[in-house]
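Table 4 source record.
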Amino acid sequence: MKDGFVKIACASPELKVADCVYNTDRILDLVREAYDRGVKIVCFPELSITGYTCGDLFLQNTLLRSAEESLLRLVEETKELEIISIVGLPLVYDDRLYNCAAVVYKGDILGIVPKTHIPNYGEFYEARHFAAGGPTQYTVCIGDFTPTFGTNQIFCCENGPDLIFGVEICEDVWVADTPSVKLAQNGAVILFNLSASDEIIGKAEYRTMLVKARSGSLFCAYAYADAGIGESTQDMVFAGHDLIAENGSVLAGSKLFSSGLTIADVDISRLHHERRRSSTWQSVSKNDDTEYYRDLFTMTLPDDMSDRYIPPHPFVPSEKDILDARCEEILAIQATGLLTRLRHVGTKTAVVGLSGGLDSTLALIVMAHAFDRLGLERSGMVTVTMPCFGTTDRTYANACRLAKAYGATLREIRIEDSVRQHFRDIGQDESVHDVTYENGQARERTQILMDIANQLNGIVIGTGDLSELALGWATYNGDHMSMYGVNASIPKTLVRYLVAYEAGHADGLLKEVLLDILDTPVSPELLPPEKDGTITQKTEDLVGPYELHDFFLYYMVRQGFAPGKIFRMAQKAFAGQFTDAEILKWEKVFYRRFFSQQFKRSCLPDSPKVGSVTLSPRGDWRMPSDASVRIWLQELDELETQIKEKE
């Protein structure tokens, strides 16, 4: 399990109330199906062997005896299967009846977990039959087995020490003092809930919110197995609403009023990483002195991502409604940060270099939002276009049209002569198109912007984005520098959607020019254009596709994943779009540039934090500028060798 994925499932079987034999048949069918699909742990609903709605039949010895016999049958018939089954049944212990979860694996019962919170309100009257469970270290006799009985149990894989799970039952997650908190604090990263939650209007949405929130606050995966339609007797209807959430997001959910398996690949290494990076999680007290018993098991844990969706653009929501809301929120954050800075320094002027490209366009959009909210005249937005050797007619025209559409002040300053003078001063041959040739133009532009800002008592707005900062694709003390960088927390893949969002709310000239900018290749335009006037220097031809780099950036910085794991995830996310060789090539470029360019990020201007990934040295990312990249590249080199050997 080198990548940390484990396949789990929730199951809502078809059942007949009080027919333990029939119900066990259906449970076994789903256990075998889950096993065939590579599932390692499958969880069934509350009281799944008997049915939840048995009422006073729970006091019948015949039903209790049949439930125990069915559990033993389940143990016997799954002993050759390497899959853990968590099933619900009523069990008597010390002359009390308990609503229990039995954890079954390879011919053994690993443990019995009783329900802690017994509801006795509304349509629920469990206290009529069941006692509340608690933390014990006793054993209960079931056939020839003597499993531990009590709520203070966690189940640990000996040969995969990161795989630790706990169990609670239905109402336990709906209360304030939920057992899942202590289970998580004692190491459980997956929590299984055997539930029988009847369906009423609005409950599915609330249930989803509850499961998502629990998985997020506990940095865990939460699997909720719900009773299905066979329980719908007398006054209640059950929908089989199974949910699997991880760290605040739903990985998989069943359709209401359905039966069968809901499967997801849980990334437990990600969850352990989240707990390590959270200082508040590390400092949490375990609340009491209860000792938690560790039930140990051994199983083969292959890496399998077949049931996990890997989004190719982790910074960009896939649902349009969510994406639109996210764009609106991001623009509001950027504009609020800028307007606060403008108000603080007491200026009504902001200066930006307008190139006709995406990043400077987004910066101007943010400026317009900030100026409007402050009630300032847009003429105080001073845009400066500075054509030089690589400027094309298309980007020049778009810069001018964009400034006009926003009502900004436009200044055109051609910099060829000043750059040539600088080249003469330092002895640079203009025919040599090296890094000095390119950076000389970028630094000249920054000097002009800074001096104009001084003239007008304004500030220079930086345009560089998060992806460029990660790759160091900026001229040190050139476009790298500003007085406030509005885009520094926005990855390139998201910049495009923000500009598109603005275009979708525009009309006339503004809409027209924004759409053409979106259709223009990304380029710094520092090299002379082609003979036909088109852009010759395309950024992604030089440093690689930004959608790959943003993918690498997110999973390296936000999740702390190793290069090999990121590569294997990229294989799935970009299947059919990039070959393995292309992904490896650009991932190596990413790591080399990310490590070598840290010195630029160590002295960034102020900028608003927008998302969970930012490279500000004052915010989320602190890294020595001279750190070695050797072990990261070594892992990719070894992976490349393995791939070639298989070919």
